[in-house]
Amino acid sequence: MIQVKAHAKVNLSLNITGVKDGYHQLKSVVASIDLADTIVLSKRKLSRIAMHGMGSERIPPEKNNALKAAELYSETFGTEGAEITVYKDIPMGGGLGGSSADAAGVLKGMQKLYKKGTDEEIKALADSLGSDTGYLLKGGYALLEGRGEIVTPVSAKQPLSLLLFLPEGEVSTPQCYRAYDDMPDRDDGQTERVLDALAKGDLKGLGENLYNSLTKPALSLNPQVAEAIEEAKSFAPLGVSLSGSGSTVFALFENREFCEWAKSRYRGKCRLVVTKTVLPKDRKAWRNPFFLSEDEIKSE
After folding, report:
1. What is the pTM of this model?
2. Where are the domains of the chain?
């Protein structure tokens, strides 16, 4: 039996840079957080994949990315099936990458179960399943480009303390991108400023430059997002932004204590989650000399 943690992510910046082959192109700095689903896998002698949890019985197979990931792995490498259970903690439809994280987690679990497939081959399978699935195989800080499949690792020197505001209503990602086409904005260098702030360990600068091009479209689709943003700002955090296409709003604070303080005084309707950014176990695999030196990595 194999157990895998599938971590959620937040978008510290998200800029739409254009459209190519019918798909929106983006430039986005992302970070994985300690909010995670737990995936348990065991071998199954039959070729069929059996999946439990996460409401999988109600999800059409063609829309269940975790199930598709297991079937794709089995078909690609000629393995037997698997018994898979997903224990959900990541809210569905919140812009936190839960579906992609589960697909990435299943691929990692299948690779551990059957010992087949190089990391490059697994990454190719992940990219075929979703724009950020390949990134979520490892997580950590990264710059995503293209549809999200071009991943440049980024290392930061300190974890970020975040308070998530989770409105009840979801935001449809396809609808959000269509709405964006009616209200586009331009790249004013937010992503570069976010990268610079991370490199310097400048929390204030990071908070001032959090940005998401999909915020206005998300607001037009779900008024609860606007309420969550205003509620988050009322606690005077370093910065507030939307993750993905929403509906999750996050506030960046100086430390966890401030997050807990804001949560204890909140009287709104959103579910709140105190979280922090997390780094992958294999730090060297995600090392970028622009941010951390070899000595710094060895000392951690």
Report:
1. 0.90
2. 2-153, 156-276
Q: What is the tens place of the pLDDT at every residue in 83-133?
A: 999 999 998 889 999 999 999 999 999 999 999 999 999 999 999 998 899
For residues 64 and 215, which has the higher predicted lDDT (pLDDT)? 215
CB-side exposure of 122: number of CA atoms within 13 Å? 21
User: Which is it for strands 150-154 and 141-146: parallel, antiparallel or unpaired?
Assistant: antiparallel
- Alpha carbon 293 to its chain centroid, in Å, reads 26
Q: How far is CA 224 from the centre of its chain?
A: 21
HSE-up of residue 120 (Cα within 13 Å, Cβ side) = 0
The residues, ordered by sequence, that sit 6+ positions from 178 with a Cβ below 8 Å of its Cβ are: none
- Give domain 156-276's CATH superfamily: GHMP kinase, C-terminal domain (3.30.70.890)
What's the pLDDT score for residue 58?
63
Residue 210: DSSP 8-state: -
Asked if residue 297 has pLDDT above 60, the reply is no
Contact 135, 146 (CB under 8 A): no
Burial of 235 (0-12, 13-18, 19+ CB in 10 A): middle
Q: CATH number of 2-153: 3.90.1150.10, 3.90.1720.10, 3.30.590.10, 3.30.230.10?
A: 3.30.230.10
Catalytic residues: 9, 132
